[in-house]
Amino acid sequence: MKPAVNPVPANAPPVMLGVALTIANHEGLRRSLRSAFGLSTRAINLRIDPGMDLIFLCETTLPSSLPCLASLTHPGVTAVTLREAVLTWAPDPEHAIGRGTPTLGALESGSCFLTANSRKIPIATFNSRNVQSTHIDMELLGQPNLLEFLRSEWFTLEISGTNRRRLNRPLAFQANLKFEVRMLPQTAAAA
Fold it and tell me: Is the pLDDT of residue 46 over 50?
């Protein structure tokens, strides 16, 4: 009688996903309420916390058919975990870099989420000690298996958080996510 052997997953080459995102410049919450709902100034009788103006949200919905995710369709893939999450600044070529130029240094804190099939999961976060003007090395939140999210037909990548100060111009950056792919040993050798 042969002893039962449990297959130990092996690593496949990592998957890199780079997504360009932009945080819109500050419009002011009262102003955006007027434009969104057609409300006059007199109709807005809300006491709005000034800190609300420093909240940002940027997201994009992506298809699972992206070429960089093609290896995840292999039937031997058992798990995908986030290994690295970095935000890098993308300077606006139309504006000279100088005083008033928004950089990643304008951000205070934030989180990165993946959403698919009506499920949302936090995957990384950052705070003021992670922030540099040209990049932010995010801290990973555990090691959840993200295969179901990245294999769904469409998934949403969201970065949200707070600014240190209001943005007078849009802030463009790239979210670079590196995923570790785990496969069954016999399929990893063939891949």
Answer: no
pLDDT digits (tens, 9 = 90+) for 133-161: 999 999 999 999 999 999 999 999 999 99
Distance CA 148, CA 150 (A): 6
pLDDT in tens, 89-121: 988 777 666 666 788 999 999 999 999 999 999
Closest by alpha carbon to 124, among 132, 115, 113?
Answer: 113
For the four alpha carbons of 58, 19, 173 and 85, in that order, the dihedral sign comes to: positive
3-state SS track over the chain? CCCCCCCCCEEEEEEEEEEEEEECCCCCHHHHHHHHHCCCHHHCCCCCCHHHHHEEEEEEEEECCCHHHHHHHCCCEEEEEEEEEEEEECCCCCCCCCCCCCCHHHEEEEEEEEEECCEEEEEEEECHHHECCCEEECEECCCCCCHHHHHCCEEEEEEEEEECCCCCCCEEEEEEEEEEEEECHHHHHHC
